[in-house]
Amino acid sequence: MYKPVQKLLRFDNYKMQKSVKFGYLSVILYLAPYKLSGVNICPKASKGCIASCLNLSGRGVFDSVKLSRLNKTKYFLQDRVKFLKQLDREIKNYYKRATALNLKLNVRLNGTSDLPFERYRLENGLSLMDNNPTIDFHDYTKIKNRLKDALPKNYQLTFSKSESNDNEIQELIMTTKQNIAVVFNKLPKTYLGRKVINGDLNDLRFLDPKNSIVGLIAKGKAKKDNSGFVINI
Asked: Is 4 domain-assigned?
């Protein structure tokens, strides 16, 4: 059973703080990834992705943070309606805070998960995005079918490359302008025939130009990856 959670969203992530210079207050939800809760909340996670997960970077190395993320995940799994209600309330409070600072609000719900939040409904029948239409939401995903959904207009998804989804990547490159995130040891100018943009400058993926490769530099355990998850240039 989960314990009461005072706060679901965080805004003290270093990369999220970079968003301020672009006019945004960014907040993020961190859960216990993959099967740490006993339920797989990253259904398309590859071996390389699991080994390189940012869950254990920064504050994630502390036991208190690990336990907090696990507790939040149990909260989500055991009482989703209440979880979403609290999440909606926190989003609205952060919107007021951002407005007072003359900033826009950006919300990332899958900091260390890959859940279809666009499909989850509040008690009023709306998704979190539709219930907060003036707020920008974005996430990374490895679940290609999510791209086919009729996403809320204020929710943007960036597809993520792993060492095991090359066929899906090739299909998206050939048939769509879908942005694709790729982890590199150093950023090239182009990759797979597309321009590479620096995804580490901020965490505002909805501002990225279409048809882009979003380049992310390997961090933490990913620096030692030999699975093919990190592309070496």
From this structure: no
